[in-house]
């Protein structure tokens, strides 16, 4: 059980840990990041590779919510297309500024709420902060889960 | 040659992993005594459908939890309810296939299901197989042309009529052979044809039930399109139309992760979750299931044979919780029962434990 504040590069470590989840299916991960770039995580592996492995070998269901405005960025669109092709459910929402990752499996419930986007600058260069709970504060987890469901329900 | 399951006095393999739509209706029985709330909702849904209301049911659960099985059970129970009234329903099954998750294929599966299972019944309403007779029955020139070619044409014309109705692109000469002027080559036209077909079928059948299975396979964009289409159908038919949508998920909220809309979600009258097998009702589950597959001449003291209450529970306990669903438990029963079939004896707990490493789902 974990409940901790994380800063700067520690956030990257937590993202890497969540995307390298090893327990068996069913695994459901919701990633909310207004901006997303393929980013090298702490173990040197790329974010898209980790997601691919989770889907391929763990049959994980991955939902990604990004800011609709980012449709103008061809590099980001290319990544989103690549992620959609491997089975990520990509949703584009207006006025999105939330950054969170929720992991839901039979054994574990984890949540990271952070100021950082999933980009090399967000996860490596800028000053960022976050909180991370693993199997702790379940009522807060549920509130965040419900909020993300609310985001998904909104018209794109 | 005797099959292994005959050693246990089964007429058919009770554990065979089959598409529920390929299982004989007589072998399909409600065996999930643990799902009391789900059964209540299924009963209400059936009652509303037989009462000719416009009604919608959403089913979700883990892989192997029996979602497709439940749609088939509903089909069976509806048929049984309509039969004494001398009424016919049309039950259209389709799914989003994992291999090719596009609307064209979803549409094609529905049309193929109709042609295979209901075209003959529809034909009984016609006085002949010519265009005029079909126009009287179906009330639409293009559909009448298609059905007339399908029922009375040469094998080539029959194949072309099927090709047209299932939404494949036809060449100009193929269209001319059918005397039709357009192909259903956009998803909009395919959806409109499905809507028209349901509307016309309701002139002859009492109720139409549309099942859309495996919704989890649709990419987000297709999920949005399917949502809009199904919402339109629910809004269009104010009575005699039932929709069943099923998807693999742990939580109902995953409906939105998959890309299905709130606008469609709001239109469902019932939501059923198929949860994991309950250990206390497991023996009864197995008894009911076995009974549907047992030989008529069988003489067994307890329908749970060749298992016992303890060995059935033991097997479930040894399995990882992620597999505590009929779609995994029954194949594991098969692995154990096959190994024990040469002895023809009741399976004991030691045998289950010793052979558990050999089962498919640990």
How do you describe this structure in short?
Chain A is of the alpha/beta class and 156 residues long.
SSE blueprint and pairings:
The complex is a heterodimer of chains A (156) and B (362).
Chain A lengths: L1 E6 H11 L8 E6 L14 H12 L2 E7 L6 H12 L3 E5 L6 E6 L3 E6 L5 H6 L3 E6 L3 H16 L3
Parallel strand pairs in A: 2-3, 3-4
Antiparallel strand pairs in A: 1-7, 2-5, 5-6, 6-7
Chain B lengths: L35 H15 L3 E8 L5 H16 L6 E7 L7 H15 L1 H5 L7 H8 L2 H12 L2 H11 L6 H7 L8 H15 L5 E7 L6 H17 L4 E8 L5 H4 L4 H4 L4 E5 L7 H10 L17 H10 L7 H15 L8 H7 L7
Parallel strand pairs in B: 1-4, 1-5, 2-3, 3-4
Helix pairs in contact in B: 1-2, 3-9, 5-6, 6-7, 7-8
- CATH top level of the largest domain in chain B is Alpha Beta
- Along the chain, the helix and strand elements of chain A come as EHEHEHEEEHEH
The CATH H-level homologous superfamily of the largest domain in chain B: P-loop containing nucleotide triphosphate hydrolases
> Which architecture of the largest domain in chain B does the CATH hierarchy give at level 2?
3-Layer(aba) Sandwich
The total count of strands of chain A amounts to 7
Average pLDDT of chain A, rounded to a whole number, is 94
Q: From the structure provided, what is the oligomeric state, counting identical versus distinct chains? A: heterodimer
CATH architecture of chain A: 2-Layer Sandwich
Shape of chain A: globular
Largest sheet of chain A: 7 strands, mixed
Total separate domains of chain A: 1
Q: Beta-strand percentage of chain B?
A: 5-15%
Number of helices of chain B: 16
Cα-atom Rg of chain A, whole angstroms? 14 Å
Helical residue percent band of chain A: 25-40%
Which structural class do the helices and strands of chain B define? Answer: alpha/beta
**Helix- and strand-based class of chain A?**
alpha/beta
């Amino acid at each position: 059980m974990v409940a901790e504040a994380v800063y700067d590069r520690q956030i990257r470590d937590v993202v890497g840990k969540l995307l390298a989840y090893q327990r068996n299916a069913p695994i459901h991960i919701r990633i909310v990041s207004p901006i997303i770039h393929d980013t090298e995580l702490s173990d040197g592996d790329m974010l898209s590779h980790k997601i691919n492995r989770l889907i391929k070998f763990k049959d994980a269901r991955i939902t990604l919510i990004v800011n609709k405005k980012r449709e103008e960025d061809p590099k980001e669109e290319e990544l989103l297309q690549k992620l959609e092709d491997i089975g990520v459910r990509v949703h584009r929402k207006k006025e999105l500024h939330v950054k969170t990752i929720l992991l839901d499996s039979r054994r574990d419930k984890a949540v990271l709420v952070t100021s950082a986007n999933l980009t090399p600058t967000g996860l490596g260069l800028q000053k960022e902060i976050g909180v991370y709970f693993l199997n702790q504060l379940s009522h807060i987890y549920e509130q965040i889960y419900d909020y993300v469901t609310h985001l998904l329900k909104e018209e794109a | 040659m005797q099959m292994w399951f005959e050693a246990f006095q089964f007429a058919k393999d009770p554990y065979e992993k089959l598409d529920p739509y390929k299982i004989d209706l007589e072998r399909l029985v409600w065996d999930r005594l643990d799902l009391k709330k789900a059964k209540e909702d299924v009963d209400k849904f059936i009652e509303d459908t037989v009462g000719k209301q416009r009604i919608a049911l959403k089913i979700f659960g883990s892989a192997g939890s029996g979602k497709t099985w439940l749609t088939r059970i509903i089909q069976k129970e509806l048929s049984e309810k309509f039969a004494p009234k001398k009424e016919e329903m049309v039950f259209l099954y389709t799914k989003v296939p994992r291999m090719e998750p596009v609307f064209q294929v979803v549409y094609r599966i529905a049309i193929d299901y109709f042609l295979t299972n209901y075209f003959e019944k529809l034909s009984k309403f016609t006085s002949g197989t010519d265009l005029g007779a079909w126009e009287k029955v179906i009330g639409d020139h293009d559909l009448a042309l298609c059905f007339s070619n399908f029922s009375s044409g040469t094998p080539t014309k029959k194949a072309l009529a099927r090709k047209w109705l299932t939404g494949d692109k036809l060449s100009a000469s193929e269209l001319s052979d059918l005397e039709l002027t357009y192909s259903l080559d956009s998803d909009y036209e395919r959806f409109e044809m499905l809507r028209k077909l349901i509307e016309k079928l309701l002139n002859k059948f009492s109720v139409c039930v549309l099942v859309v299975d495996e919704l989890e396979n649709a990419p987000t964009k297709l999920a949005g399109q399917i949502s809009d289409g199904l919402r339109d159908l629910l809004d269009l038919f104010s009575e005699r139309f039932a929709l069943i949508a099923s998807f693999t998920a742990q939580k109902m909220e995953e409906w939105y992760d998959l890309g299905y809309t709130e606008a469609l979600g709001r239109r469902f009258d019932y939501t059923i979750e198929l949860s994991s097998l309950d250990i206390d009702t497991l023996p009864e589950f197995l008894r009911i299931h076995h009974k549907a597959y047992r030989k008529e001449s069988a003489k067994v003291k307890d329908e749970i044979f060749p298992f016992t209450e303890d060995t059935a529970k033991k097997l479930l306990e040894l399995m990882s919780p992620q597999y505590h669903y009929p779609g995994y438990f029954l194949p594991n029963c098969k692995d154990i029962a096959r190994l024990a079939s040469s002895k023809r004896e009741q399976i004991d707990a030691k045998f289950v434990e010793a052979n558990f490493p050999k089962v498919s789902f640990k």
